[in-house]
Amino acid sequence: MALTRGLASSVLQDGFAEVKAGPLTAATLRHRHIESRSVGIHFVQGSGFIGAEPSNRECYSPMQSFNAECRMSDRLQNKVVVVTGGASGIGEGMVRRFCAEAAQVILADVDEANGSRIAAECGADFALLDVSSADSWQLLEKKIRDDGGRLDILVNNAGVVTGQDITAVTVDAWQQLMSINLLGMMLGCQMAISLMRDNPGGSGGSIINTASSTSYLAIPDVAYTTSKAGVVGLTKSVAVHCANEGFNIRCNSIHPGATLTNILKTAIEQAPEVEEACNKMSPLNRMGTVEEVAAMAVFLASDEASFCTGGQYAVEGGTVSQHPKM
Ligand SMILES: NC(=O)c1ccc[n+]([C@@H]2O[C@H](COP(=O)([O-])OP(=O)(O)OC[C@H]3O[C@@H](n4cnc5c(N)ncnc54)[C@H](O)[C@@H]3O)[C@@H](O)[C@H]2O)c1
Fold it and tell me: Which of 25, 45, 150, 306 has the smallest C-beta neighbourhood within 10 Å, fewest atoms?
């Protein structure tokens, strides 16, 4: 399949991220980083704040099944969940699904405008969090401890791209991406273990790290590829440590393929050939949806996944099973 250079080819190479590479140049990454350095953390309470009965939640309108009954199985009822990067795309889908499962959800993001709006729509809390800042994580931990100290599930989902290959990547861009995609994830694991170890009623919890099919299949964005491969090692190390310490804390990674987020929808509007390119990544000949990724997160978060730790869970329609030339 012949794709032109630029946006379309970028999307084909990455599936997620290069779509974002337009606005996310080294300069914008630096800007975002500087901006995010100054953020602290605060909560904007939705209708289902921590400790409240999780009732009257809005449904996630894009999902037919959610519209039908509002609640799914309630299998996460009263579980306290933090989703980073919940203000957009896959994270937003997870927030909405966890709310529909009657969990008490904290949407944590640097994007206050969208994060607060989404949280209010589905009955979550919003927390302004820069995952790359240890101070920001400490403030979140303090807030959770002040609210009763319970944390059952952390989804380390926030992620960015550079759009730069090995010949172009700058030290600045590399470090800024790593500070979000890997350091941020490590800091999240530290906070989660600290809280989950002390959970009222005994230690326990589930940490879910959003990786990618690029953990296995390289793309030109060298920092992004490296970070997503790194998530696998981080996840296994955390899982083994927690098991060895007897903490009853599981840690797994989710590996989405090309997923139809708003960014991708915009890219398709601008360059319609992107859609076919992304579809062809999977032998199922389509992209994934945020709801399909969220469904995997709910499973890994639930007690049904009690024997799952240190694992890598693909939600990519067979993308890495298919020989690219066939
Ligand atoms: N969409 C795809 O095709 C795809 C495929 C594979 C993996 N992924 C992974 O899924 C995750 C989400 O991707 P998406 O497509 O939903 O992207 P997205 O850009 O729609 O959402 C990313 C979110 O992370 C937030 N964020 C960025 N920097 C942050 C920081 N420092 N602190 C807190 N929040 C921050 C953003 O504000 C945004 O809300 C990423 O880790 C990405 O690598 C996506």
Answer: 306
